Amino acid sequence: MNALTKGISPFYPGQPVPAELFVGRQAEIDKIARAVRQVELGKPQAIFLSGEYGIGKSSLAGFMRFYAEKENHLLGIHVLLGSATTIEDVAVKTVEAVLRAPAYEPTLIEKARNVLSKYVGKQELFGIQINLEALKADSPNISAGYLPFLQQLLERFRDEGIKGIMLILDEINGITSNPKFAHFVKGLVDENALSATPLPLLLMLSGVEERRREMIQHHQPVERIFDIVEINPMTDSEMRDFFDKAFRSQNIEVKPDAMSLLCHYSAGFPKIMHTVGDVTFWIDQDGIIDKDDAFKGILLAAEDIGRKFVDQQVLRALRSADYHSILNKMSKLLFDLSFQKTDLEKGLSDSEKKKCNNFLQKMKKLKVLSSGDIQGEYIFNSRLVRLYILLNSIKKDASQ
Ligand SMILES: Nc1ncnc2c1ncn2[C@@H]1O[C@H](COP(=O)(O)OP(=O)(O)OP(=O)(O)O)[C@@H](O)[C@H]1O
Ligand SMILES: [Mg+2]
Fold first, then answer.
1. N or C: which end of the chain has fewer CB within 10 A?
2. How far is the CA of 171 from the centre of ligand 2 (A)?
3. Domain assignment of residue 374, yes or no
């Protein structure tokens, strides 16, 4: 089977996973499904979907949106706030999300375009043009009257059998630094709770825990509004299930020892599972992933992640020669994912020792390491990053 005769790669590195390849997360799904049901019955809910970068927040949010539309007749609005920095931007992106996002029911898309026709530009063959000028002109009004805007939206959708709204505010990294956003979110929840007929609204924010903390710093009461749903690394059986499903969808078999390798190096991170899976998919020549294919895939994936993340972000941030030398020595200590600071210090020169603390703090800030449970213990967040740094330092030694 060469590249030309291969089917579609069932892996989506960097994109939310399609529903048919979504695996695991049952406890989180149950918890969100309960909230969705409450909203369908008329009771507003607020959830903060929390988890590390690439752990699967957007995918789970998207999956639950699909579920809420299909099972509980909510209108799903998945807003990617990305570049938004003001509340007006939030308003613009919300309207865009209603108009652009594919809904479970095609009739809903049509309805949305009718209801918000003011902001629809000329129709294109594929997708939709948005009249950004009109939308931007209205954005101060929409943001100041955000709840009434949502209420009116729902009223117009009632005749489609829609019972409430699931509003997902995703990619909040940029907006949370604006103190107004915390006030805006808290205001939205309070205003709704106090209104005579509260809008059945499931408000879901999705982001890393630091973003929630940042909002609380700007406005303390934000601490009390959310039920937190935390997404953790996948278990071994969830990972197996994923690789199994994905490869099987293309009639590819995975040998048990290859499966163990893929899972070991992915270490529960769905983003890495997709990267490793994709590379391995293209390496395979005979429809059977054996240990050799898996290992080649892992090395290539480590190169890929290393070049993007380690070279671009980590090595650039570590400017001094001492830091680079500490990194080298650290990578060659014998450990899997976690090591003791004292073991690292043993091999350092005096001047390196002085910089060791700073080095470790930097590595934590760069999200390469985390603190372990034991005092002085540090853990690599990704096994592939660990592998890349090790391979790099071996290469460096060989070329010296
Ligand atoms: N339950 C799942 N089953 C299979 N693949 C998944 C699952 N969840 C996430 N993924 C995959 O993992 C990768 C990261 O997922 P996603 O973008 O949803 O994470 P995220 O937490 O939103 O990331 P970011 O912090 O970058 O926004 C994507 O390639 C996605 O397809
Ligand atoms: Mg995301």
1. C
2. 6
3. yes
